[in-house]
């Protein structure tokens, strides 16, 4: 029993850290920091999955943790950093509709609305408070990611928005929806594709075919003409 | 009563004594992280000793406010220092430590400092006071929300009781204290006018906030103002330290316990001073109009803490 309580507290600490990282993603302007925060957030999610695995013993949670570490902590941030090395911009200073202050205030509101919605639903869901907490934070994280997509102008930051949104969905699925593992794998593959495609788009949209090929060569994505 | 008297004298004395050391430590860490040698650790004490020996000169335009402000400023801050235990936890009865009163004391000190800045009628003083008050208007709700979140999580508005609550528990029992810690750190940076809000080491028109208000003060009065700045910083650091890392804080007033308490606080405060020094070296000063986004982060953390507590 005692062990279980310690497990719960540990998960709560991790959830608190997820929220902290979400707030930093909204306000951060330096791209290098954004990627590092995203990697840290994904690492925390992997730790949540591991903690839940030790508690529930479901094997898919363990796979999820491994997959998250491999894809979102190592591969995606590595790819994004390589992208950044050849990109002319290092900071994202342009915003649509909302400045970081507006986004932070709005996300406070979003968090509260999600909390209200789930408090009303919680008797019907019949799960423990910890799981409701995880679900609220998961949905809020997804909505905050959506806000990043909406409020940033640069494609590269929008990608971080997508990724953070997916992290929210993952968190939600860990606590409430119990998504099949195969779906999670498919989502990760989708994410990788999104990143490759948006990187190509972000680069190629303003260049001629020849210049575009040259840029792709810089990225290490060589093409046979 | 005797115990409380002992507590007040020791606590205020210790906080006052260690303040210049912490200021020196932050400067030293900053200098080292920027590849400079920096001033000696005890430079704060030398500066105070030097200022105390100098004569006081006032502008002809000043009123009694200018003469009174340093005493009021240090008085309010020492009273606030009595509310934040660092040597040992006083027994609950008769020890004032209400967090709302504490915030009012800090604001009163700030008010008189701003008034003194305006008093001489110099452009810099007025500018500093105006900037300080504009920032205060934005940071005050954030400070109050952080204090409210703290009171909400620990179920008390009494600062010694808050410390007692976390001393008897682990961080795992109050996970939201991590978020409150981040809010308190931002409040600490803003309230002590550090980078990215203000640069305490320059006297440039563009960056000055806190220093501009002190430009007309001289000699021992300036020493008092400098000391009160140090005390304010130590008190705010003490809250952050004793909420997040309460280990070593004595629960009763015995000599070995007090010695351990002072030593552990000194070490923890030096560690926090090093963190602040590195943080300052990593950051650039933010434009004045972009500062609210920095404060809003603290507000978000405090608000989220309250919702988190409601759910958990």
TrEMBL record, chain A:
Keywords: Cell membrane, Membrane, Transmembrane, Transmembrane helix. The chain crosses the membrane at residues 6-27, 34-53, 59-80, 101-118, 130-150, 159-176, 182-205. GO terms for cellular component: plasma membrane. It is found in: Cell membrane. PANTHER family: HYDROGENASE-4 COMPONENT E. The keyword Transmembrane applies. It comes from the Bacteria. It is a multi-pass membrane protein. This is Hydrogenase subunit.
TrEMBL record, chain B:
Its EC number is 1.6.5.9. It comes from the Bacteria. GO terms for cellular component: plasma membrane. It is an enzyme of class 1 (oxidoreductase). The keyword Transmembrane applies. Its main location: membrane. GO terms for molecular function: NADH dehydrogenase (quinone) (non-electrogenic) activity. The chain crosses the membrane at residues 6-26, 68-89, 101-121, 133-154, 166-190, 234-251, 257-279, 291-311. The keyword Membrane applies. It is found in: Membrane. InterPro entries: ComplexI_Subunit1, NADH_UbQ_OxRdtase_su1/FPO. Keywords: Membrane, Oxidoreductase, Transmembrane, Transmembrane helix. It is a multi-pass membrane protein. This is NADH-quinone oxidoreductase subunit H.
């Amino acid at each position: 029993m005692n062990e279980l309580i310690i497990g719960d507290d540990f998960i709560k600490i991790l959830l608190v850290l997820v929220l902290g990282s979400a707030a930093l993603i909204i306000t951060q302007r330096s791209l290098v920091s954004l990627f590092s925060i995203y990697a840290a957030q994904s690492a925390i999610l992997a730790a949540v999955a591991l903690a839940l695995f030790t508690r529930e013993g479901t094997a898919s949670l363990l796979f999820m943790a491994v997959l998250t570490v491999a894809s979102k902590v190592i591969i995606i941030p590595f790819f994004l950093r390589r992208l950044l090395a050849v990109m002319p911009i290092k900071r994202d200073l342009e915003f649509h509709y909302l400045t970081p202050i507006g986004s932070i205030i709005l996300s406070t509101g979003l968090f509260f609305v999600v909390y209200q919605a789930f408090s009303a639903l919680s008797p019907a869901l019949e799960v423990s408070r910890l799981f409701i907490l995880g679900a609220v934070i998961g949905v809020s994280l997804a909505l905050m990611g959506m806000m990043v997509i909406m409020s940033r102008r640069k494609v590269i930051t929008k990608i971080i928005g997508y990724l953070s949104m997916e992290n929210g969905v993952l968190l939600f699925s860990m606590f409430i929806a119990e998504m099949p593992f195969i779906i999670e794998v498919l989502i990760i593959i989708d994410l990788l594709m999104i990143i490759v495609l948006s990187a190509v788009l972000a680069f190629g949209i303003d260049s001629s075919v020849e210049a575009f090929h040259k840029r792709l060569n810089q990225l290490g994505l060589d093409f046979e003409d | 009563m005797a115990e409380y008297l002992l507590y007040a004298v020791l606590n205020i004395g210790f906080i006052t004594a260690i303040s210049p050391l912490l200021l020196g430590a932050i400067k030293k860490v900053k200098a080292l992280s920027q590849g400079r040698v920096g001033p000696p650790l005890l430079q704060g004490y030398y500066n105070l000793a030097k200022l105390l020996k100098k004569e006081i000169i006032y502008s002809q335009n000043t009123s009694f406010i200018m003469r009174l402000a340093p005493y009021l400023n240090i008085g309010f801050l020492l009273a606030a220092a009595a509310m934040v235990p660092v040597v040992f936890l006083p027994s609950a009865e008769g020890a004032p430590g209400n967090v709302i009163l504490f915030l009012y004391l800090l604001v009163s000190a700030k008010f008189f400092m701003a008034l003194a800045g305006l008093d001489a009628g110099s452009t810099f003083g007025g500018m500093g006071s105006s900037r300080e008050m504009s920032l205060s208007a934005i940071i005050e709700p954030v400070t109050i929300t952080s204090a409210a979140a703290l009171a909400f999580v620990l179920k008390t508005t009494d600062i010694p009781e808050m410390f007692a609550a976390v001393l008897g528990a682990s961080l795992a029992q109050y996970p939201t204290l991590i978020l409150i810690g981040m809010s308190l750190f931002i409040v600490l940076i803003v309230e002590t006018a550090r980078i990215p809000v203000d640069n305490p080491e320059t006297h440039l028109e563009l960056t000055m906030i806190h220093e501009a208000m002190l430009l007309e003060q001289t000699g021992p009065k300036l020493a008092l103002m400098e000391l009160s700045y140090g005390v304010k910083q130590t008190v705010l650091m003490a809250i952050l330290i004793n909420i997040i890392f309460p280990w070593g804080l004595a629960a009763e007033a015995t000599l070995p316990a007090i010695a351990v308490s002072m030593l552990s606080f000194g070490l923890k405060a030096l560690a926090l001073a090093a963190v602040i020094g590195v943080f300052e070296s990593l950051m650039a000063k933010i434009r004045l109009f972009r500062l609210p986004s920095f404060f809003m982060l603290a507000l978000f953390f405090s608000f989220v803490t309250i919702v988190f507590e409601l759910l958990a």
